[in-house]
């Protein structure tokens, strides 16, 4: 879609890395080793794929300076995967959307729309809302009243952002996601019938957060549901009311986080993990896919399982579980040996 | 957002509870003990938080009459949490939406819209549909043909209600939810290729149901998928075709209920629970989060696990599972002792 | 909704099966044995329900030729369930949508819309997109730029299909589903902060695929995320970037498939299954509901569990797990017997 091109020297400067090879080599894109062509830059993130580098048609490659025997034009990086991401960003543009307000968009008269924001077809922006500079609101997005969306955001088609929620700068929200639905809060009478506890809080999404498709982030009962700066959330994730997620965490698809959970910074939750309500998960915790967190977790732990336990303990228990049939057999053999011993000793006794 | 206020006496009357303290104290909202200010009403739902009450700035508090030593202005309730919910409802209004049909809404000529209903921007209401009195249909909602929505409902932005489905009174449906998608029904030929079984039934949602964001409720193959009166459903829940859910049940986020399951009344399903097809789950059953229900469940049981078993049994088995390494060690020790006994007895035998 | 009718003879011809009974019997629909009336066709897919056939009011029935003692008008089929599906299709029409472009639809001037396609109210079709013959795009659907939708497709309300994705012929996509959201790809710096890897690939959905409500199918990082011909996907399913799914597979609700997974043909995944990244699952594999796939799976296997193991092995291990309390008791008894033996032998020793 894009027609951008850079020389290898320009890329080295833009990425802040050392170049080895022809300064004027023209690069028109980034691709994996097996697919990149002579005008593309590729990358060797893991030295074990070096044979793929040898057979690659890529015109240039990003490599770690310690990789021996690379004679192809190259950019040297201590973190080739990171440099690849930054290089690909140079070539990438989000889907086109003209600056200004599409004639079919419905925008409240008192909404503040930055002059260089772009609002697509059939968008709605409610009263008191504001849309920041350079932000793109794609078609069919519903922005309710008093919502704030910061600068340079991408709000993809069919997203819903509900009353009063606040979105920071450079936030990306993918299609179908709902920000600010009511939390799941009810009081029960003595017959077990539920009455709704009004959910009067909001959702705050800090800068540089990305949220995948068809997620649900509930507003707080009172106060704020918060997603910390730089955190990345995959598709179909449930974030309940009053959850607080720290900075730079990573939450994989179909995770469910119950109400009033506090997650630290740099937490990683694998796919389909569930966290019970009111728990605290410390900084740097990593939880394996499909685990269930039933107790608070101190910082730095690696857990897995249902319920989750430390990673090593889980593997030991699992090994024992698989060994159960053998344990049963062993138990049966021991019983027979004890039977025999008792019989023998009985005979002895008699013989005495 | 709201500017409502009541005196403590007015609140006591509206809530049907006893007041102790100044009748004319003005209350402008409801909040938790740590956050409520001098013009707000708070609540002590659990006596163990009584120290928070002492340090709270709340102007008044809802307490159980048995709590000793409360001298703050107060409302006495046998169920303070319920009374708090009802009090908060007095101050809460759903997001504003003017009565009438927004000029950008697309409404079929033969659709019946109650004069005091509100249809937001870019809403669609199909042929033969009807929208009841006081109901609010927020922006971007898609109501297909022949759908019935009752009175005093809140249908939040971007909800989809498909052909012929029937929604009762006072129903709340949150953004992104789909009511009446086709059930997952196919016949296979001898090559394992699927052909679609047309899904010709509907979904019926009874009065006072609330459904969260980004759920999917499939229409029946033939007949009706039904969600019983007063049942509350959280976000991202899957309800397959021909499911019948009883009254006043509670279904937490990311639950999946397979086709033709019958759930009783007052059932509680924890988050991420899955229920296999064609099962019956009795009244009052409670299933722990992330459990898998593989067999029908008699009324009144508490189950958990994958597959789910009675709660107490699960805890006992789990304790044994964690004790497996110790059992292995014990087994090894016993084997050595039996080895020694056999050797000893062998020597005895020889000595004899 | 439909007013179609056929004679029994017409149905036999359309379905390519043998008729027994009056050729002119008029059939106006298909229904289950307990609900079908005298002008409806029912079916006996499983001989164990034969007593229901006897009490059914159905005017005619589809049965296997081997079922004895059926004297009702009937169609004979070696696969009655398949024939029922095909018969029901004869009576079924998708929700009505007039051919042509609704006046409130927003269609880019260079989009190609087949003359007999139908675009509903408030639809968006972006630049360079094309919509095939006989395809119905229901209200509120968002088709982004350069998307291709084939012939005879049904794209239900509120679906989002993003830039450049390609949809085959006779594809059905249910409401709320998102095709072509960005894959979850980030590079981390040495501080654990993430930067986005632009997702420049697309999604290709082959002919005769059906995808349920509120699913998310991510575009590839580079290249293609592909869903093979004839595959059927239920609601709330997550399909990550670069996944390849073979033909005629069946994926039940709330499954999550991680990035770069390759699924074979005729694979069946039960509800809530999770598959870890970069694995290969062979042709004909069947995975039980709620399982976690942590390793690649050779063709033809039946697995279940967390982590998944062969079906029979899982049942054996589960039986042992339930027997753990008994094993503990047995171990305790053996220990006492060994205690006693040692004591006895000690006494013997002394006595000697």
TrEMBL record, chains A, B, C:
InterPro entries, per the entry: Hexapep, Hexapep_transf_CS, LpxD, Trimer_LpxA-like_sf, UDP_GlcNAc_AcTrfase_non-rep
Positions of the catalytic residues: 241 (proton acceptor)
UDP-3-O-[3-hydroxymyristoyl] glucosamine N-acyltransferase non-repeat region domain boundaries: 25-90
SUPFAM superfamilies per UniProt: Trimeric LpxA-like enzymes
GO CC list: membrane
Keywords of the record: Acyltransferase, Coiled coil, Lipid A biosynthesis, Lipid biosynthesis, Lipid metabolism, Repeat, Transferase
GO biological process, one term: lipid A biosynthetic process
EC number(s) reported in the record: 2.3.1.191
Coiled coil ranges: 324-351
Subunit structure of this chain's protein: Homotrimer.
Family stated for the protein in its record: Belongs to the transferase hexapeptide repeat family. LpxD subfamily.
Protein name per the record: UDP-3-O-acylglucosamine N-acyltransferase
Single GO molecular function: N-acyltransferase activity
Gene (UniProt): lpxD
Known role: Catalyzes the N-acylation of UDP-3-O-acylglucosamine using 3-hydroxyacyl-ACP as the acyl donor. Is involved in the biosynthesis of lipid A, a phosphorylated glycolipid that anchors the lipopolysaccharide to the outer membrane of the cell.
């Amino acid at each position: 879609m894009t027609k951008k091109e850079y020389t290898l020297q320009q890329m080295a400067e833009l990425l802040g890395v050392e170049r080895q090879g022809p300064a004027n080599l023209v690069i028109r894109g980034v691709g994996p080793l097996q697919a990149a062509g002579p005008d593309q830059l590729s990358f060797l993130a893991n030295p074990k794929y070096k044979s793929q580098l040898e057979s690659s048609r890529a015109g240039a490659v990003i490599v770690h300076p310690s990789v021996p025997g690379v004679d192809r034009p190259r950019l040297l990086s201590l973190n080739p995967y990171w440099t690849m991401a930054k290089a690909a960003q140079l070539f990438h543009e989000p889907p086109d959307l003209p600056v200004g307000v599409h004639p079919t968009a419905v925008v409240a008269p008192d909404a503040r729309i930055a002059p260089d924001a772009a609002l697509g077809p059939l968008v709605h922006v409610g009263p008191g809302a504001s849309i920041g500079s350079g932000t793109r609101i794609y078609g069919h997005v519903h922005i309710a009243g008093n919502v704030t969306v910061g600068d340079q955001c991408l709000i993809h088609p069919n997203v819903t952002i509900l009353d009063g929620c606040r979105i920071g700068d450079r936030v990306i929200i993918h299609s179908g996601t709902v920000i600010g639905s009511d939390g799941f809060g009810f009081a029960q009478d003595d017959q077990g019938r539920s009455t709704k506890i009004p959910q009067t809080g909001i959702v705050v999404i800090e800068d540089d957060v990305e949220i995948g498709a068809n997620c649900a982030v509930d507003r707080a009962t009172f106060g704020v549901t918060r997603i910390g700066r730089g955190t990345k959330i995959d598709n179909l994730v449930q974030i309940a009311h009053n959850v607080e997620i720290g900075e730079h965490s990573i939450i994989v698809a179909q995770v469910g986080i119950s109400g009033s959970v506090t997650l630290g910074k740099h937490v990683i939750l694998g796919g389909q993990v569930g966290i019970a309500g009111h728990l605290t998960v410390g900084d740097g915790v990593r939880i394996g896919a499909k685990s269930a967190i039933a107790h608070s977790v101190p910082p730095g732990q690696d857990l897995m399982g249902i319920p989750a336990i430390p990673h090593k303990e889980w593997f030991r228990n699992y090994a024992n579980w698989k060994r159960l049939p053998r344990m049963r057999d062993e138990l049966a053999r021991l019983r027979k040996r004890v039977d025999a011993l008792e019989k023998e000793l009985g005979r002895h006794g008699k013989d005495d």
